[in-house]
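S., here's the first fold you wanted:
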Amino acid sequence: MMRQHEQIVASLPRNSSCKSSSKIIPASFTRSTSNADAFHHKALVRRPAAALHQTRSGVSTFLRSLISIFTFPSFLPACRWLHIPTHLSVTPSLGRKVTGTLFGHRRGHVSFAVQDDPRSEPVLLIELALSTSTLVKEMSSGLVRIALECEKPPPAPRGGRAAASRLFAEPAWTMYCNGRKCGYAAARAWTESDRHVLRTVQSVSVGAGVIPVVDDGRKGSAAEGELLYMRARFERVVGSRDSEAFYMLNPDGNGGPELSIFLLRI
């Protein structure tokens, strides 16, 4: 079929006009030069200079009146709703690497604080359902996985809008340590004792030790023993708006204890 098509194309006679450089003019085309000659010989009518000056002055007057109406002093008071209040505080977004500090009295509950950098205020402070001495024992095993779970808010009514809340704003959590349910953890505001701890260790990037005890007025705080801390860099992984994880990083890469903390809203 292709060979037959090539034979048909080869048998078609070529017109000599294909090789000519002259233009092809249709037979129905009639050239008329009367209109063109009349156009060239027709004198151009120019607008008088006085009329042109009046037009320009009218445009400039209009522009000046328009600018006087929309000057900024008279325009801004009418749009006060565009003003952005300066008292609004926006929570800074966390990066991929954060500073995590586990601290607490030896016989008291351990707290977990998350900071964007070692000198900033904590964006998350949770009191875990685990004593500091128990956490030390779990860390000696080389692997600690802490899961904090909370329930999702009820769905919005039909036609309504569900209340969006940040994962860090959840007040209460069910805690599991290495697969065992330990009790309930709670997010809390940081106290003067927490401020003292974080200020004391703000120059420490990675390490553990003992901090002098400061009595913050809590009942029985003096009888809870010395205050221990462990501080490290954590890798923060966001799965969704309902799940985040913090993986402790070993700076030397020597295969030290592994610690992972998961926040889950299910």
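And the second, which I think is the more interesting of the pair:
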Amino acid sequence: MIPNHGLKMEERADPADRERYQRLVGKLIYLSHTRPDITYAVGIISQFMHRPQVDHMDAALRIVRYLKGTIGYGVFLAKREDLEIDGYTDADWASNPIDRKSTGGYFTFIGGNLVTWRSKK
């Protein structure tokens, strides 16, 4: 996802094929369970499922192109003797220019393996 993407509903923008967009985003949501690197971008584009526009479809296809170039990425669980627990969090307070809502998230590792993560607007 482009930083400061500025995706929003435009008044006179061209509409995208809604069924195609919804199918694509649904598949990306399912895939994001094992590809946490795309969860933020998928969360952004899933906000426009009710009335997608061409810019939203372009953003979804950009994620697909990213996935094509990063096939070896994903959640990998390795056996380790060390069971140290690490957690990280971040938040972006009131960053959405439309509704002034915040975005926050966290993820935790056990023994160096990613076990939980969450992102929420």
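Why I say that: Residues 87 and 108 are 4 Å apart (CA to CA). The beta strands are 85-92, 103-110, 113-120.

Talk tomorrow,
H.
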